[in-house]
Specification:
The complex is a heterodimer of chains A (321) and B (307). Chain A is an alpha/beta fold and 321 residues long. Chain A has helices spanning 46-53, 59-63, 81-87, 99-102, 109-119, 125-135, 141-145, 154-166, 184-201, 212-218, 236-241, 246-253, 315-320, and strands at residues 4-12, 21-30, 35-39, 65-71, 74-75, 92-95, 172-176, 204-209, 221-226, 229-235, 302-305, 308-310. Chain B has 13 helices and no strands. In chain B, helix 1 packs antiparallel against helix 12 (271-299) and helix 6 packs across helix 8. The chains are: A alpha/beta (321), B mainly alpha (307). The complex binds adenosine-5'-diphosphate, iron/sulfur cluster (SF4) and magnesium ion.
């Protein structure tokens, strides 16, 4: 059984059946210990997906959420109160997109980290907190515990947020573009750190990014999102070698460092459609070089190879191109 | 941080000194100080004594230093109306009534305002939220004297539930405190509701939830602590309305505080008392603002690292 199994998740802006949808019919599985990349341009709904899994979306979106999010077979969307709290932190955790805003400005690092460690039932909080900061490579941890968020650099805050996310040793951690706010060298260090921690704790990771370079470095499988839908999913090597969706190909072509990436397709022009303005059928068709009349109806996810699915009417032609 | 506190203290002292200069100049430059300070029934001896006492035959600067020296020893002159009583004594005698009313109004305002603001924010869009918002809007548009009179008429005269005016028991506090506090109560409610909504949508509240903290901890610790920062900022303005409100409310409810004293001494043109009331109110106001600054430092760690 999958650790996490998202089934037909749809998130609308409100309860109404015709309310604009941020996510439509999203299905995705994460196995224990696995790293799954979630890739897509900004606005495709990656953060909303991550937050839905932990039930962190604002009330409007929460009302408009349907489908199933199964955690060890239990539907997270039906959990309330205590069950939800037990899920959060201890079972599943998340590193939010914005490290600058993720720490509470009025409490010290020690206090905010301590809250998580306390829930994990750690006895010697001071020692546990120092160890937790040391694990994310923060120098002089005892001193940093007394610091307030505004006294730390962006990279340092991101490490503190990660330490808090990992404090209760979750089985799954969702990382929402954890490196975009950091500069290039720190980004690299941070990715290495996350990878090492993941191996050490044996946890699964859902890694949200818009950068295929990062996917190549750390993920086992990848899911590509466009305009609120997953359009292609499969093992990372397979997707890099044999992408079947034109959008995936375009994203790969935009990555300078990947040797295997086919570069015959030009980098896609234009911007993704905003929520509520998504075109009928395949939402990618206004930007797609292979679009035909058929693309005005919605393609379904079809198997392309073992474990490799794509939603494109012309997937076979992409392979041949 | 010590530097910051010392700086604020110095500012407070400077403000007080400046205010003493303003009050001094008001009594010297506008008209005849002897007439102002003595009233109509003074004798020639009284005049001569005052001229010597205040150094009125010397330079303005000397006069100010003398005034300041007298003030520092607690000598603000004598009341013209209330039988030559020491002006400072008169004011200090009235202070407890005003301070206790202010304290009651302050507690009522903060506790109720914060509770209603939090309640409205966590039930956003519900009937509770709508009722709170309407009440708050009304509270901010009602003039204090009108509210006071209506409350006396309805609660005391018609229903006979509470005394109409006066001072002494806890029942006497209810209507004046309601009257003084209503405007700021409404303002605090709206402020807390808005800042709670911001906080509840913030990333740090999400992180608190991710940790699996209880909803009570998330709301009352993580969101509320941040939402109180604007309330603290607002407290300075709050004291100003409280003081101006005190004059009206103490007069309406015959409350024996310094607000009523200010009104009485203006009516009887008792200049030494007016002057003392103004200085004491200024000192209180400066003290209150100093406390607000210190509270700010206590609640917001970002402030501690400035300066
Ligand atoms: N609370 C909300 N109200 C209205 N629109 C929202 C809300 N949250 C997200 N959206 C919209 O949903 C889309 C997807 O957002 P997001 O999940 O943050 O995408 P990503 O993380 O991929 O950039 C965006 O267009 C965003 O404007
Ligand atoms: S379905 Fe059509 S428009 Fe959509 S990606 Fe495939 S070819 Fe392009
Ligand atoms: Mg995002």
């Amino acid at each position: 059984m999958s650790l996490l199994s998202i089934r037909n998740l749809t998130v609308r802006l409100g309860r109404a059946a015709h309310a604009p949808a941020i996510l439509e019919d999203v299905s995705l599985d994460v196995q224990p210990g696995e790293t799954v990349g979630l890739v897509g341009e900004s606005g495709s709904g990656k953060s909303t997906l991550g937050m839905s899994v932990l039930r962190l979306t604002p009330p409007l979106l929460a009302e408009g959420t349907s489908g199933e999010i199964l955690w060890n077979g239990q539907d997270v969307l039906k959990m309330r109160g205590k069950a939800l709290r037990q899920l959060r932190g201890g079972e599943m955790s998340m590193i939010l997109q914005d490290p600058m805003a993720s720490l509470n400005p009025v409490f010290s690092v020690g206090s905010q980290l301590g809250e998580a460690l306390k829930r994990a039932g750690r006895a010697d909080l001071q020692a546990a907190a120092e160890a937790a900061l040391a694990e994310v490579n923060i120098p002089s941890p005892a001193e940093r515990l007394r610091s307030f968020p505004h006294q730390l650099s962006g990279g340092m805050r991101q490490r503190v947020v990660s330490a808090i996310g990992l404090a209760q040793e979750p089985k799954l951690i969702i990382c929402d573009e954890p490196t975009t706010a950091l500069d290039a060298t720190i980004q690299f260090q941070f990715l290495e750190l996350l990878r090492a921690l993941q191996k050490a704790h044996g946890m699964a990771m859902l890694f949200v990014t818009h950068d295929f370079g990062v996917v190549a470095r750390i993920c086992d499988r990848v899911a590509v999102m466009y305009a609120g839908r997953i359009v292609e999913t499969g093992p990372v090597r397979e997707i890099f070698r044999n992408p079947r969706h034109p959008y995936t190909r375009a994203l790969l072509a935009a990555v300078p460092s990947t040797r295997e990436a086919p570069d015959r397709l030009p980098v896609i022009d234009g911007a993704p459609p905003s929520v509520g303005n998504r075109p009928e059928g395949c939402a990618f068709h206004p930007r797609c070089p292979l679009a035909t009349d058929r693309c005005r109806t919605q393609p379904r996810m079809e198997p392309q190879a073992p474990g490799h699915d794509a939603a494109c009417w012309h997937a076979k032609e992409v392979a041949a191109a | 941080m010590t530097r910051l506190i010392v700086g604020r203290l110095a500012e407070a002292l400077a403000a007080l000194l400046l205010m003493s200069l303003v009050i001094f100049l008001l009594s010297r430059v506008t008209g005849d100080p002897v007439a102002l300070l003595l009233g109509d029934s003074a004798t020639v001896e009284d005049r001569d004594r005052l001229i010597e006492q205040l150094a009125l035959d010397r330079s303005l600067w000397d006069q100010y230093l003398t005034f300041l020296g007298n003030a520092l020893t607690g000598d603000f002159g004598q009341s013209v109306a209330a039988g030559r009583r020491d002006a400072l004594d008169l004011v200090l005698e009235r202070l407890p009534a005003s301070m206790s009313l202010a304290a009651v109004a302050l507690c009522f305002t903060l506790v109720t305002g914060i509770a209603m603001g939090v309640l409205a924010a966590i039930t956003r869009g519900s009937a509770v939220d709508i009722v709170v918002r309407i009440v708050a809007l009304m509270g901010q548009s009602v003039p204090a004297f009108w509210l006071g009179i209506v409350l006396i008429y309805v609660v005391s005269v018609n229903w006979g539930l509470l005394p109409t005016s006066g001072y002494g028991t806890w029942q006497h506090y209810v209507l004046p405190a309601l009257t003084i506090g209503t405007f700021t109560l409404a303002a605090v409610t709206r402020l807390v509701r808005a800042s709670m909504l911001d906080a509840l949508g913030s990333e740090y509240v999400k992180l608190a939830r991710i940790k699996g903290l209880s909803e009570a901890t998330v709301i009352l610790k993580h969101a509320l602590s941040n939402s109180l920062i604007p309330v603290v900022t607002f407290m300075g303005a709050f004291f100003a309305t409280m003081i101006t409100g005190a004059v009206v409310v103490e007069t309406v409810f015959a409350w024996p505080g310094i607000g009523r004293l200010a009104y009485e001494s203006i009516v009887s043109r008792d200049f030494p008392v007016i002057q003392t009331v103004v200085l004491v109110i200024t000192a209180l106001f400066i003290l209150a603002n100093f406390c607000v600054d210190m509270l700010y430092l206590a609640i917001d760690p970002r402030m501690r690292d400035r300066g």
